[in-house]
Amino acid sequence: MKTVEREDDERLPIEASQGERVNFAELYEQNFHRVYAFISRRVGTRDHAQDLTAEVFHQALASIGNFRWQGAPFISWLYGIAANVLSAHWQKCGRSPAQLAAGWDQGGPEEIERGAILAELVDSLLPDQRTVIVRRFIEQRSIREVAKELGRSEGAVKQLQLRALESLRDKMGRKI
Amino acid sequence: MNRQVDADELNLELESWLAGKEIEAGPKWQSLLAMAAEVRALPYPEFKNQLKADLLENVDTHEPGYIAFEQVTGAAAFAEVLPIFGGRDFRIFPADHRSFVVSFISHTALIVLIASGIWVGRGTVLKSTRITPELTYLPSSGGGGGSGDRSPIPATKGTPPKMNDRQLAPATIVVRRLDPMLPVQPTVVGPPDVKLPQSSQIGDLISSNVVIPSNGSGNGGGAGSGSETGLGGGTGLGYGPGSDRGTGGGVVRPGSGVSAPRTIYDPEPEYSDEARRVKHQGIVLLSIVVDQQGRARDIHVARSLGMGLDEKAIDAVRRWRFSPGMKDGIPVAVQVNVEVSFRLY
């Protein structure tokens, strides 16, 4: 029953996208974090990871009409595109065959899933907690800068930081 | 108080780690530092939304999926067109043989007359027109214009002149004075950066009159069935069926065969500092037009919330993307109201 439900869940937005490509937005939302997690664990910098992720989705959108449902999850098809994009990127960087092989060993399915879940959990934090987490660890701003943006004291921002990290840790523990 | 002490302690560890120093976090903070490290690998938050907007930007909403043409071939096609020729199948048209003969002869005569070149306006010659494929969408600004010289013949088919923010000469098709002292290029009034289809023959895009030079049945000095000095069936200095200036296109509302647009990408609005400080919350009601490309235009505040939130709501809706409203399988500009909610949790 679960397999059938999952198939139906995926099939409808895929067929909708093949009919009207503007409906690709739903597939994008469902799979963005997994694709990014797959790529980010295999490239050195966030900028590279974002560029290559963008390339994957542009290629996916361009060729969605060619996708044929064969029972495998749609994400598998996206991983295939991502693998090609990564290969091209590494070859451009001049990686040796041994290095190419080693690159594929980074980040298995569990790690990718964990990255996707974490991204969703960050999105679901309370607004001020989310702001602190994003500014501090993704954008690497100081406590002072974040306090000024939120109109709060530095002490209050540190407490938000503590509560946000605890919340993420606890929820990740429950999800996995 | 203990909570603040913990927060300060954790922050010291995090600062060292962020600075790239080697740290040995005790068991108390290890799990939280590991969590911070995982968060650090996430993409910039705006990247996901920007990429989505970029992907949707490249999608052509006028794909075949919007217009369903049924291809009929072979015997089925013959059966479909048979009634037109007075065939036995009267399902669609109760055709009559004599009517067909009369119609055929009269149409042939008309074609011969046209080909003979009898109807040529004095001093003007209609050149064959080719509408350039440069037509981009006409912003649904609600504007329009119209004119004419009370001719019984509709304005000649053609393309509008360029848009300018002022008009020195109205767009006429039949020019009465052929040797003006100071020739001035005709224009219609509207945003100069709007691209209208261009050709060698000024006229009304939607007119059925492709032969006879005519300024149309309107009045005012331009061309069309409207009034004032624009071009088209509207009123004003612009082009199209609307009024005032710019271009019109008959913005419609949902209902009567028109489907409502649907949001496919609606990022949350930002809070203004002023409203956040006093924890001001509520809903801003905006009246918008969703154009054929699924973007919001002509955004007006129907119900204000104040404290800078109206502007934030407008900024957010400008970034929204919609699946456009449809009429008869074709995207149309639709006017709708949108609620933008501001809540502090």
Describe, in plain words, how this protein is organized in 3D.
The complex is a heterodimer of chains A (176) and B (345). Chain A is mostly helical and 176 residues long. Chain A folds into two domains: 1-106, Rna Polymerase Sigma Factor, Chain: A, CATH 1.10.1740.10; 124-176, Winged helix-like DNA-binding domain superfamily/Winged helix DNA-binding domain (Arc Repressor Mutant, subunit A), CATH 1.10.10. Helices cover 77% and strands 0% of the residues of chain A. Chain A has nine helices and no strands. Chain A has helices at residues 2-19, 24-40, 46-62, 74-93, 97-103, 109-123, 127-138, 143-150, 154-175. In chain A, helix 6 crosses helix 9 and helix 7 crosses helix 9. Chain A is globular. Mean pLDDT of chain A is 83; it is low at 1-6. In chain B, the strands form five sheets. In chain B, strands 1, 4, 5 and 6 form a four-stranded mixed β-sheet that branches. In chain B, strands 9-8-13 form a three-stranded antiparallel β-sheet, covered by helices on one side. Chain B contains seven helices and 13 strands. Chain B folds into four domains: 2-40, no CATH class; 74-116, no CATH class; 119-250, no CATH class; 262-342, 2-Layer Sandwich (TolA/TonB C-terminal domain), CATH 3.30.2420. Chain B has 345 residues and is α/β, with parallel strands linked by helices. In chain B, 26% of the residues lie in helices and 18% in strands. In chain B, strand 8 (282-290) and strand 9 form a beta hairpin. Chain B has helices spanning 2-18, 27-40, 45-57, 74-81, 97-116, 273-277, 309-319, and strands at 144-146, 163-164, 188-189, 223-224, 231-241, 243-244, 262-265, 282-290, 296-303, 321-323, 325-327, 330-332, 334-342. Classes of the chains: A mainly alpha (176), B alpha/beta (345). At the A-B interface, helix 2, helix 3, helix 6, helix 7 and helix 9 of A face helix 1, helix 2, helix 3 and helix 6 of B.
